[in-house]
Each structure stands twice: as structure tokens, then as C-alpha cells.
């Protein structure tokens, strides 16, 4: 028998504009932050979810680990975007063995790719005497191979590849402990993709990935106001230093145009859900936003006004013990919105220990 410290499994979120790494310790009911790192990626390193510069991504992963003394070699990472298909289906009652034998046949009805080209998994989410609810998730193998290759180049082993949408849900569940009476929409606004997950308690009801993100706000400011990328990013977050000559009243209409697109896509998601659900009594009570795009100045209030729902920023460390002597509270507060998916992936890592 061996005694000693259990090896940790970190959560690694490879986004289109940055990489985030979170290492958690403890048990599920008492988690603590062990390690954390965040670093931006150069432009066009990742395009449409595809890693174009494998060496750049592996170098950034190594930089994060060395700069923040993260020594674990095992990680859980995630995927999102158009390569990922998630479907909730309802099947007749059947045994687990029957489901296992027939899942490919059922999946073929809902997955728009050849099953030979995807990795497929499923989970039973509910059962009655008359039906069995099953969640199916599939991702194109080339996308999985792409991210695995970058991680392995960094000397790390991807032990699980999850879906970003469900990692976000893990983060929400561990920090907010919701019950079945609570229906919220989890909205992760990345640079190029928004992950939407309508959740009742701990059950995902409807998911959608939308190819709109924070980079749209930056692009519109750069194009229309002649700003550099750094200036546009600062203006987006309400910082006007170094942008002399730019009228604030010229900024608001540009921001509002993109916010309108974001709110319309969220509303469209609600409409899609209502059109496909048999439970018409489910009403979203609140939206929790995360991701770098959620740091846009005034976005939560504007979405709340347009969608007529409370909108709050999700706190990924709300129920996680954080040593303020080791982690600067101001820095943690600054990067908090970006860390939600990485925290959810790290939660999955704790479950694997």
C-alpha cells in the first residue's frame, strides 16, 4: 500500500483567445484553490475552434505551469462550437444493456455527421415508467485529436475531454448548490463563441453554442473608431485612458448594436427551447454570465433590461476556499469571469481522483 499525496488533475480551458488552468484540492464538499494561471494567445492561434499553431498553444500551457508552479501532468479539457452536438432525447423504457446496444442507432437520427467521424457519449438524465431521457454528446474526432495533440506537446496527458457547456454547469452546481425549483440560464461569452445552457437544478434542459462573442465588440470598435486592438479592449471594459479624441457618445451606439445581437440570440435560444419542450411550465428565473465577453462595461444591466430577467456575473470561486495570502484578491477579481469553465473542468478532475 502506498501512502502520500493524491495526484491532482487540473482543469485546462483552451479558448480562442486565451488559456486558463485551474487546480483544485480537497473533497467535493470542501474544495480549495491550489493553482491558477491565465495567459492570452496571439491572434489567429485558434481559428473557428481549430488550433492552427500547436507549438504556440503548448508553449503557453508550459508557461502557465512554470510561472504558477503547477506541476500536475494530468488535465481535463473541454470542447465547444459547431464540432460539438448535444441532444436531449426521450426513448421508450429499456434496460441499460438495450440502451448500450441501440445508442448508435438512436444517435444517427440526431447527429448530422457520420458516426465514424465522431466520438460519442451519453448519459441517462431521467426515467419514468413510460420513458427514458438520455443526453447525447458527440464531437468530431478531428477536433478532439487537434486539442489532444497540443496538450501532449506540452507534456501533459488529457485524461478526459468534456464539453465546455457542461463544465460551466459543474462550476455552477459546486458553487451555487441549486435545487429543482431553480431554473437559470448559464451564459459563457467567449471571444468567438457563446455557450448557453438552460438548467433546472442540476439537470441540463437545453444547450446551444452560438458563434457570437466578445471579439465582435472589439472588432466593431476597431473598425468604426480607428482604435488598436488594445485600445478597443480597454474601451469595451469602460477604460478610456489613451483614447483621446474619441467621443464617448460615439461608443455607445456601436456597443448597443452588438449587445442587441447577443440578446436576440439568447431570446432565440429561449424560443427554441419552448418550441421543443413538452414542459411548458419551465420559466427561466435568472441568467448567470461568465467568460471574457461578460466583462463588457454595463453588459449585465443591458441584457437584464432587454430580456426582462435578472442578470448576474457567475462567481466561480463562490464556494471554493481561496487563500488570500497565496492568490491576490484583486487579480482574482479581475480574471474571475474568464475562469468559470476552467473551474468546472477542475471539478471534474477532483471527481477522477
Task: Give an overview of the whole structure.
The structure is a single chain. This protein has about 350 residues and is an alpha/beta fold. The protein has two domains: about 1-85 and about 145-175 and about 320-353, ATPase, nucleotide binding domain (Nucleotidyltransferase, domain 5), CATH 3.30.420; about 180-315, Nucleotidyltransferase, domain 5, CATH 3.30.420.40. The chain has ten helices and 15 strands. It has helices at about 55-65, 95-110, 140-155, 165-175, 215-225, 230-235, 250-275, 300-305, 330-335, 340-350; strands at about 10-15, 20-25, 30-40, 45, 50, 75-80, 85-90, 120-125, 130-140, 155-165, 185-190, 195-200, 205-210, 285-290, 310-315. The strands form four sheets. The protein has a five-stranded mixed sheet with strand order 3-2-1-6-10. A hairpin with a 2-residue loop joins strand 12 (about 195-200) and strand 13 (about 205-210). The longest helix has 29 residues, at about 250-275. The chain is globular and about 70 Å long.
Amino acid at each position: 500500500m502506498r501512502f502520500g499525496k493524491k495526484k491532482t488533475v487540473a482543469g485546462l480551458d483552451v479558448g480562442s483567445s486565451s488559456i486558463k488552468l485551474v487546480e483544485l484540492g480537497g473533497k467535493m464538499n470542501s474544495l480549495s484553490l491550489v493553482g491558477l494561471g491565465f495567459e492570452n494567445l496571439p491572434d489567429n492561434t485558434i481559428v473557428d475552434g481549430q488550433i492552427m499553431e500547436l507549438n504556440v498553444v503548448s508553449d503557453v500551457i508550459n508557461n502557465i505551469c512554470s510561472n504558477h508552479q503547477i506541476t500536475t501532468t494530468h488535465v481535463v479539457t473541454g470542447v465547444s462550437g459547431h464540432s460539438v452536438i448535444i441532444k436531449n432525447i426521450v426513448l421508450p423504457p429499456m434496460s441499460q444493456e438495450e440502451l448500450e446496444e441501440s445508442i448508435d442507432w438512436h444517435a444517427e437520427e440526431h447527429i448530422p455527421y457520420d458516426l465514424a467521424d465522431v466520438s460519442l457519449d451519453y448519459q441517462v438524465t431521467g426515467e419514468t415508467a413510460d420513458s427514458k431521457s438520455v443526453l447525447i454528446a458527440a464531437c468530431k474526432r478531428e477536433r478532439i485529436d487537434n486539442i489532444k495533440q497540443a496538450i501532449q506537446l506540452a507534456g501533459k496527458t488529457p485524461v478526459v475531454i468534456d464539453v465546455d457547456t457542461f463544465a460551466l454547469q459543474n462550476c455552477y452546481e459546486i458553487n451555487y448548490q441549486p435545487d429543482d425549483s431553480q431554473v437559470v440560464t448559464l451564459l459563457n461569452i467567449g471571444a468567438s463563441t457563446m455557450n448557453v445552457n438552460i438548467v433546472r437544478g442540476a439537470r441540463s434542459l437545453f444547450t446551444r453554442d452560438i458563434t457570437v462573442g466578445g471579439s465582435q465588440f472589439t472588432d466593431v470598435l476597431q473598425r468604426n473608431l480607428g482604435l488598436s486592438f488594445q485600445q478597443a479592449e480597454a474601451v469595451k471594459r469602460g477604460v478610456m485612458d489613451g483614447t483621446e479624441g474619441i467621443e464617448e457618445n460615439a461608443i455607445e451606439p456601436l456597443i448597443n448594436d452588438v449587445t442587441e445581437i447577443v440578446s436576440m440570440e439568447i431570446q432565440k435560444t429561449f424560443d427554441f427551447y419552448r418550441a421543443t419542450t413538452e414542459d411548458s411550465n419551465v420559466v427561466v428565473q435568472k441568467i448567470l454570465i461568465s467568460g471574457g465577453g461578460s466583462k463588457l462595461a454595463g453588459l449585465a444591466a443591458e441584457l437584464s433590461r432587454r430580456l426582462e430577467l435578472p442578470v448576474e456575473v457567475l462567481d466561480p470561486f463562490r464556494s471554493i476556499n481561496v487563500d488570500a495570502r497565496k492568490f491576490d484578491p484583486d487579480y482574482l477579481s479581475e480574471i474571475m469571469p474568464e475562469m468559470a469553465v476552467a473551474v468546472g473542468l477542475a471539478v471534474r478532475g477532483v471527481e477522477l481522483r
